[in-house]
Amino acid sequence: MRVVIPTSTPDGLMAKRGAHFGKAPFYVIVDIEDGEIKDVDFVQNPGHAGGACGNAVMNIKNLGADALIVAGIGARPLMGFKELGIKVYFDNVSTTVKETIEKFLKGEIEEIKPENTCGLH
């Protein structure tokens, strides 16, 4: 499974979580096999124009993501991810990728519900 997490720094597992998935400067990519971290990488966000949520969705898709973990997301991009078969999980508590992945592996992070999306998107 390939999990993508928006971050404000490119520091792998110690990267600081980014707020807005489409505007975060970096994405940390964590490959998980058999419940263990197998690889950690990062890429610079190729860009997200205001109101162009489809562009941000495709940026994540192009990374080969199976899942995205966010602190918030709008209804339109959430629907875009669902249409592509990418699961979106919600964690607005963890400050680093490491904390988020540890919770994810323990099953402590749930998929985001449409009623919990941001109203500003």
Global geometry: globular
Return Rg in Å: 13 Å
Which residue ranges are poorly predicted, with pLDDT under 50 across at least 5 consecutive positions?
none
Name of the CATH first level: Alpha Beta
Query: How many structural domains can be distinguished in the coordinates?
Result: 1
Helical region count?
3
Straight-line N-to-C gap? 28 Å
Order of helices and strands: EEEHEHEHE
CATH superfamily: Dinitrogenase iron-molybdenum cofactor biosynthesis domain
Structural class: alpha/beta
Query: What does the main sheet amount to?
Result: 6 strands, mixed
Strand percent estimate = 25-35%
Strand order of the main beta sheet, please? Answer: 3-2-1-4-5-6
Number of strands: 6
Briefly note the CATH topology name.
Nucleotidyltransferase, domain 5
CATH second-level architecture: 2-Layer Sandwich
Mean pLDDT score: 89
Helix content: 10-25%
